[in-house]
Amino acid sequence: MSHPGHPQRCNDGGVSASGQIFDTTGFLQGLDRAFAAHTPPQAIEDYLFDGLARARAATDMAAQLTVLNELAGFYRSVSRHDDAIACGDDALDLIAAMGLAGSDAEATTLINSATALRAAGRNADALARYNRALEICERTMAPNDRRIAALHNNASMAYSQQGEYGQAREHLLEALAIAEAASTDPDADVDIASTLSNLALVDFKLGDSANANRAVSRAMAIFESVDNQSNPHVAAALAAYAQGCLEGGHPELAVQAYRRALVIIEQCYGVGSDAYAITSDNLATAEGRLAARDLDAPTAGPDTSRRTAEPDSSLIAVPVAHAQSPAPSAGSPLTGLQLSRAFWEELGLPLMRDRFPSHIDRMAVGLVGHGSECYGFDDRLSRDHDFGPGFCMWLTRDDYRRIGAEVQHAYDELPKQFRGFGPRVRTPRASEGGAGKRVGVFSIDAFFEQITGYPQAPAADKPHQWLLLEESTLAAATNGEVFRDPLGEFTAIRMGFKRMPEDVWLALISRRLGMISQAGQYNVPRMLDRGQAEGAWLAVSEFVQATASLVFLLNRPAARGYLPYYKWQFAALRRLASQKVSRLPHIVDELSTIVRLASAACSGGAQFGEGGKGSSLARTQVMEAIDRICDSIVSELRKSGLTSSDEKFLEWQRPFVELAISDPWLKSV
Q: Are 270 and 41 in contact (CB under 8 A)?
């Protein structure tokens, strides 16, 4: 079966029309070695493009077909969906030009092309190509050919993403039967374990926990019998295993499994991939379940309606169970998100299912947007405004036009009080019909436009639009929880805002480095030397803000989200630092030290400051903390491959970071 880093391979022979020879076997062996060594994605892409250029120079169409299939698989694995689809289409054009219609080569190329379409959310187009491939495979391949099993695995995912779990399960059972028949050792067969992981996900979706847990257990037994802990298939089984642990009431084991899975996913796909983002999100939720349990908050079974991303023929990200809100009591840790989910599950879902049976599987529901509860930072002080029973319902534009008013009317019939909370106290801006309406019924495009000004994320070739978006705005558009999204449209747009284009990401990192350098390394000491207390204090503020932003950027928005607005920035930094796989986790403590000492450092006289020692000691400690932060940033830049320089003054790191920016207009002057 296909490896997530490698598509199904197409090695149909062809004769070069020139005297040059392309060594296809050597090319594929080199690619395998690069993947095994976890070579950075840019180097992999360069290797593939060099291979394509050499194959074209040799006018070797068969070699070009091989490289295009590999390119499609690579782009799919790093979530560059448009590029993956384009490579798949080019490969199919080559199939036609070579007269290979109906051959194994066409079937393989159809599978790779369909999988690229599925990863991009174009499930109907993907299924059409899977079905064509299946017709060819059943005619040209042996019944126990593993390529047919891989085809069934991929088709099952397309059906799953459309919410057709019964058909998804049928395909997986076919895949499992084929893999078992083809295996010489079913108890140590990675393909079988991967199929079992996929089967577990579908069984969870169908509410069959017993079969799901059996599949998880068998998959884990297989993976534990093989020494291959950097295989992305292992991450798939770990994710499924984590789901089973949550189902069984063991969030501590789920957290461990998700952390192990993230290490593998980072090696194989990178932190910018969909797989890393979704698995990180699942880990955060599992950690929340563990924290809730430690606070003696009872939890319920898993919500398996949440959409996941499966970038390949192996399952990577599995939806995790969410805590159901306990009844309020003295000292209850109930949060706004827990209250919202319980309100939906206990009252909203039954009402909508009864009133709109033909549309219930088209409705996305959750709580996202402005408000401390959407960030998970709300507490008892937060309940004096815009808090109480409520949730968001998101409809497609056409559905909203047809039934939006009726759904809103039904929503308004829900009780105003729930579990001792309510009625919801709305501020004028957040009231029904207000510019900042926070709960109720929305069309998907209008919801995101209300928050960001755009109905969907700007295109990658519109960097100026991305740069007009504040990070806090992007944080509001991508925070909270989505309780269900059968169509996947809301999640697709939400993830679009998380996938900041690489050039924009690098440009923002460069800008933050410039501000950290100018405000912290340069202007804080100079303003202090001038005795300009207010200027020094403002320089400290700019330094702290830029550093906080840089920490989130280096942790990748697709994986960790964005820095929220000022009120919750330190809370967000502390939560990020508590996650074991985060980058620069110690920075929040350094920034806290700087904030605590800034008043004394900037405004203190001889008898002012901590312990009455004056400003001198505080100033020294602030500058030492700034130096430590900048040293850590340089180390992280080098570790991430963003610089080769050891320069400590961060302004001079900017040209190294900007070397990777392709758009010259995004580079600093």
A: yes
- Nearest CA among 475, 456, 277, 440 for reference residue 369: 475
pTM over 0.90: no
164, with CB counted inside 10 A (0-12, 13-18, 19+), is middle
CA distances from 16 to 43, 56, 108 (A): 27, 10, 21
Q: In what order do the strands lie in the sheet with 481-484?
A: 440-443, 392-395, 364-367, 481-484
Can you give 206-220 as a three-state secondary structure string? CCCHHHHHHHHHHHH
DSSP codes of every residue in 354-384 = HH-TTTGGG-EEEE-SSSHHHHT---GGGGG
Quote the DSSP letter at residue 418. B
Judged by DSSP in three states, 21 sits in coil
390-412: pLDDT as tens digits: 999 999 999 999 999 999 999 99
What's the pLDDT tens digit per position in 625-635?
999 999 999 99
Contact at 8 Å (CB) between 52 and 68? yes
How are beta strands 440-443 and 481-484 bridged, if at all?
A: unpaired
The answer to whether residues 278 and 243 touch, using CB atoms and an 8 Å cutoff, is no
Structure tokens at 229: 């802990």
φ and ψ at 366, to 5 degrees? 175, -160
Residue carrying structure tokens 């399960």: 169
β-strand pairing of 481-484 with 392-395: unpaired
Q: What is residue 173's DSSP assignment? A: H
Q: Around Cβ 620, how many Cβ atoms within 10 Å?
A: 12
Query: 366: which 2 tokens?
Result: 């959750």
Bridge partners, 365 (sequence order): 393, 484
Could you tell me which residues are beta bridge partners of residue 443? Answer: 395
Phi, psi of 164 (to 5 degrees): -95, 75
**Could you read off the pLDDT of 555-595 as tens digits, one per residue?**
888 778 899 999 999 999 999 888 756 789 999 999 999 99
Low-confidence winner among 138-142, 232-236, 251-255, 510-514 (lowest mean pLDDT): 232-236
The answer to whether the bond into 564 is cis (omega within 30° of 0) is no
pLDDT for the residue 313: 37
- Count of alpha carbons within 13 angstroms of residue 414, beta-carbon side: 29
CB 304 within 8 A of CB 204: yes
CA-wise closest residue to 499 among 582, 551, 561? 561
**Phi, psi for residue 195 in degrees, rounded to 5:** -65, -40
CA separation, residue 647 to residues 223, 572, 585, 630, 632 (Å): 44, 29, 22, 10, 12
User: Tokens representing 382?
Assistant: 């937060």
Alpha-carbon span 189 to 178, nearest angstrom: 12
pLDDT at 297 over 50: no
Q: How far apart are CA 438 and CA 424, in angstroms?
A: 11
Distance CA 70, CA 6 (A): 6
